[in-house]
Design goal:
heterodimer; A: alpha/beta; Rossmann fold; 9-stranded mixed sheet; two-stranded antiparallel sheet; 9 helices; 11 strands; globular; B: alpha/beta; Pyruvate-ferredoxin Oxidoreductase, domain 3; 20 helices
């Protein structure tokens, strides 16, 4: 694209956004739009796929192709689309209820099959579109409409989950650090395979203090040459660790520590991709002749 | 003793893994080459290798031979060959035998199980059936055990039984030998000779010691220019020929063999196969494929249909084409996985929440299985409404000899062959069909980007919660079904266009019903039948057709009683306001038989109508 035809943020606006003021989702879709612009993508060859929930409305608000499907099932649709359309950039948008609860099985297998998609998990620690119920990532003791005395169990650690089921790209970022978020998305898109991008996200209405975003030392960073850089304003203000993204043992360790770590936990560029293997199988099959196959059933 | 007949049914029962189905295959092919009409159905145990000499290890094949064209497996067997008494006793529980029925019982295990044999033989005699015990000679037994030892499985008895049955049904020995050679093409010459020796010993035993024959005149075209194929295989090949390039599925009985076949063949036609993590993911991937503009299909059975419902609704709302094959089995819950039923009609049609339109196709024989995917693709791409293809457990595995199918290599839906449409009672749809969303572009199309959603949308595809939008969306979706109804041809009636009884049914009951109609007409009963292939929507002229008959009755392998109409009865009554009544509304796990239908019509005739 030449300079004058260059895509603008306005070009990528679609339907009027209906999220609450102060919602962390704005920052996430802005980063997705910037990714499209800065990576020079053709919006007609981008498909945003989602399930149900506040975050799953994202495809409506980005002027590309998209489908806002049913609860928890974005990955099956993205899988069918990826297997048939290797030419598209596919970005899945999924909340913590959508991804970790109703869609947990698909997430497990999407990661394990290493299907080439960018998966953004918008984690705000509860169900919000249905008006505050506990989700698998709700911190223990947090009160919601279904747990008026506080959530009963420890939250599911999504980074450990993604590492445990064989994630080839596992990163965490935060909606209030847009530079870090955009850089993470760019690395995720560049990665071939299932890129699991966990985003700490604030729900201003039901759970504004899910993460203490105003305090710089509420988050720590993993960084390295191949990893994601540490934003300037955090440098010297919080813990920063040099971490080799090939070191899965250290990745598990940081995933288990407080305060929460952001950055690239793990990347394995050699993991085989299911969609490519399926394509290769088809490409290498000997051309068939239906008449001959029918003849093989001759009596 | 020689019996000449136009129709006979027999079966072979052996422990699972002993090769009953292989023997059955050879017999069916030989019978067909020899000019007989033939249909067969395997008896498959629910487990993989159940313990031998138990009721659970019953495996076998039922074969029906006729001197006229048949597509059903009929009622009851005239001859049963069992490798031991326990299988025989188990099979008699199904009550699928004629009285009298000749029972050939291998006595090999009798020495060690004298009491059990004596007891079963008593049972059999008490039922008025004739037991013909036989012993395999020592020399042949020795040969059989050496073969099974080398192969590490089986007993070798199947070749012996093949010999017995070749004699009894008077199949040309040279033809049987030719089929054996083709079937066992890869074994050594020595091994082939041993197998043939065993086969000939069985033949000799039947000739010298059993001594009866049942002969069916060879009235079908002789020779090898026919195929022996089961419903799921024909369906899989039809999926390929209809131009589907993506299949997503999850293992489930009895639909799985469609996926097995496509896994082997679809890549050779540029298509892709995906075994998903569950039933829901499978249909989701098929929707994802069609969303990407690639003809996509999924297949399922029983519980899988329940799991797929929410996604079917998404395809309706987003106007994404989708084809779902449902190979029906006994339900509810796990039900009867390896047996047949037609209980899914209402779930297939109405199973999703909200007003969720769809088209129901059904198959009435193995050739329909091959052509249904063509029609389904045509309808789903033109209407952008999900199409369900209803088959069943019986059709999935029953093998029929049919003239070789004609492939069409359909590329685009406009290529569809008019004869294929007519086979399903359909004319071409109009060029323009109104959609809820005016923009139906596929990802990759520049300047026409759109976001699909399960939320209600207006014609620009934008979410709108206004009453007008919801009303319009419902109306347009239903109008698509009405458009299809207008394209339905007048349904073919088997028999006269007026009379005392019209039997209405759908799916694989056709063969049994038409045989019953032939028999009843021969006895002077005024009866015709109408088999629906597009089960929903119904042809508009149905009421008019019904008005020419005194009684409209239905036959269906689904439950109904005096207070609860069976599914097809319920739908027909609603559509026509005619007092349609079910004469068969039972789900037993076994296909409907001609005698069942005949008996019910005669009963009704005696009563003076419904």
């Amino acid at each position: 694209m030449s300079e004058e035809n260059k895509l603008t943020m306005q070009d990528l606006n679609a339907n009027q956004i209906r999220w609450c003021e102060g919602c962390g989702n704005f920052s996430i879709i802005n980063s997705v739009k910037k990714l499209i612009i800065e990576d020079n993508l053709d919006p007609a060859h981008v498909a945003n796929v989602s399930g149900i929930g506040c975050s799953s409305r994202a495809p409506h608000y980005i002027n590309t192709y998209g489908i806002n499907s049913i609860h928890g099932r974005a990955i099956p649709i993205a899988t069918g689309l990826r297997l048939n359309r290797p030419d598209l950039d596919i970005i899945v948008h999924s909340g913590d209820g959508d991804a970790a609860s109703i869609g947990g099985n698909h997430l497990l297998h999407g990661i394990n099959k290493n299907i080439n998609i960018v998966f953004i998990m918008y984690d705000n620690g509860l169900y919000s579109l249905t008006k505050s119920q506990t989700s698998p990532t709700t911190p223990r003791g947090h009160k919601t409409n279904t747990t008026p005395l506080g959530a009963l169990i420890e939250p599911l650690n999504m980074i450990r989950f993604a590492l445990g089921v064989g994630g080839s790209f596992v990163a965490s970022t935060a909606d209030w650090i847009p530079g870090h978020l955009l850089e993470t998305l760019k690395k995720a898109r560049a990665h071939k395979g299932f890129s699991f991008v966990h985003v700490w996200q604030r729900c201003p209405h039901f759970f504004p203090d899910f993460v203490e975003h105003s305090r710089l030392d509420a988050v720590s960073f993993l960084t390295s040459e191949k990893g994601i850089s540490v934003p300037e304003r955090y440098q010297g203000q919080t813990t920063v660790v040099q971490h080799d993204p090939k070191d899965v043992v250290a990745a598990f360790k940081y995933a288990s520590e407080e305060p929460i770590y952001l950055g690239l936990f793990y990347q394995d560029e050699s993991k085989l991709q299911y969609d490519e293997l399926v394509a290769a199988q088809t490409a290498s099959a000997k051309p068939g002749n239906l008449n001959e196959i029918l003849d093989s059933y001759r009596i | 003793m020689k019996t000449q007949t136009s129709l006979v049914r027999f079966e072979i029962l052996m422990d699972a893994g002993d090769g009953a189905q292989k023997a059955g295959d050879i017999l069916v092919k030989a019978l067909a080459r020899n000019g007989r009409y033939v249909v067969s159905e395997p008896i498959i145990p629910s487990e993989i290798s159940p313990p031998r000499r138990t009721k659970f290890s019953m495996s076998g094949v039922i074969i029906r031979i006729a001197d006229f064209d048949i597509s059903g497996i009929g009622n009851d067997s005239d001859v049963i060959l069992a490798s031991h008494e326990i299988l025989l006793s188990r099979r008699l529980e199904d009550m699928e035998y004629h009285t009298p029925c000749k029972i050939l019982l291998d006595m090999e295990h009798e020495a060690k199980n004298a009491q059990s044999y004596a007891q079963v033989i008593e049972e059999v005699k008490a039922k008025g059936l004739e037991v013909i015990p036989f012993y395999i000679d020592e020399q042949t037994k020795e040969l059989m055990s050496s073969i099974s030892r080398d192969a590490g499985r089986g007993t070798g008895n199947n070749m012996y039984y093949l010999g017995i049955l070749t004699y009894i049904f008077q199949i040309d020995m040279d033809i049987v030998l030719a089929v054996i050679e083709k079937t066992f093409g890869k074994i050594t010459a020595d091994r082939m000779a041993q197998n043939i020796t065993i086969f000939k010993s069985g033949y000799e035993l039947a000739k010298t010691k059993i001594g009866f024959t049942v002969e069916v005149e060879a009235r079908a075209k002789q020779g090898e220019d026919k195929i022996l194929i089961d419903g799921n295989t024909a369906m899989a090949l039809g999926v390929i020929d209809a131009g589907f390039k993506f299949f997503a599925g999850y293992p489930i009985t009895p639909a799985s063999s469609i996926m097995h076949n496509l896994a082997k063949n679809l890549p050779s036609f540029g298509g892709r196969i995906h075994q998903a993590e569950d039933e829901i993911a499978a249909i989701g991937a098929a929707i994802g494929g069609y969303y990407g503009g690639v003809p996509s299909i999924t297949a399922t059975s029983g519980p899988g249909l329940s799991l797929k419902q929410e996604f079917i609704g998404l395809a309706v709302a987003t106007e994404t084409p989708l084809v779902v094959i449902d190979v029906q089995r006994g339900g509810p819950a796990t039900g009867l996985p390896t047996r047949t039923e037609q209980s899914d009609l209402l779930a297939a049609l109405f199973g999703t929440h909200g007003d969720s339109v769809r088209v129901i196709l059904s198959v009435t024989d193995v050739a329909d299985c091959f052509y249904a995917p063509h029609v389904a693709r045509y309808l789903t791409e033109k209407l952008r409404v999900p199409v369900m293809i209803m088959s069943d457990g019986f059709e999935s595995s029953s093998q029929t000899v049919i003239p070789k199918l004609t492939p069409y290599s359909m590329n685009s839906v406009e290529d569809i062959n008019d004869e294929v449409l007519a086979r399903f009672g359909l004319a071409r749809l109009p060029e323009y069909i109104e959609m809820v969303n005016e923009n139906q572009s596929v990802p990759g199309t520049p300047e026409k980007m759109r976001r699909l959603t399960g939320l209600v949308t207006n014609k620009e595809g934008l979410i709108s919660t206004s009453t007008v939008t919801q009303k319009r969306a419902h109306k347009i979706r239903n109008q698509k079904i009405h458009t299809l109804q207008n394209a339905l041809l007048e349904p073919k009636i088997f028999g006269e266009k007026e009379g005392d009884f019209l039997i209405v049914s759908w799916g694989t009951t056709r063969g049994a019903i038409e045989e019953a109609v032939i028999k009843l007409k021969a006895e002077g009963v005024s009866v015709s039948s109408l088999q629906l292939k597009i089960v929903y929507p119904f042809p508009a002229m149905l009421k008019e057709i019904f008005s020419k008959f005194k009684n409209i009755v239905t036959v269906e392998r689904a439950y109904g009683d005096e207070k609860k109409s069976s599914p097809i009865t319920m739908l027909l009554r609603n559509e026509t306001l005619v007092d349609v009544k079910a004469i068969i509304a039972e789900a037993t796990g076994r296909p409907v038989t001609p005698n069942e239908v005949k008996a019910k019509i005669l009963e009704l005739k005696t009563k003076g109508g419904i």
